[in-house]
Amino acid sequence: MDTARVRSWTVLLQPGDVLDYRPEDWADTLLVIDCGELEVECRSGQRARFGAGAVLTLAGLPLQRLRNCSAEPLVLRAAARQSRR
After folding, report:
1. CB neighbour list of residue 24: distance below 8 Å, 6 or more residues apart
2. pLDDT digits (tens), the chain, 85 positions
């Protein structure tokens, strides 16, 4: 049986930090918010917030930015299937 390999990483954003959203960075990725609060901003300007314990995927969403909107560090755990070569 062939099992998929998974790569994982942690993203740390300090209070007020902003990341521009690049779809290729988040393709096929599952996110878990460990602590803090993530605000996602759509290209339309609409925003949504997610707190600790939330599980998200950002694939296919019309996002523009990811922001730490809390007073504490935002810790995102990410996991994605590794591409086979």
Report:
1. none
2. 445 688 999 999 999 999 999 998 898 899 999 999 999 999 999 999 999 999 999 988 999 999 999 999 999 999 998 865 5
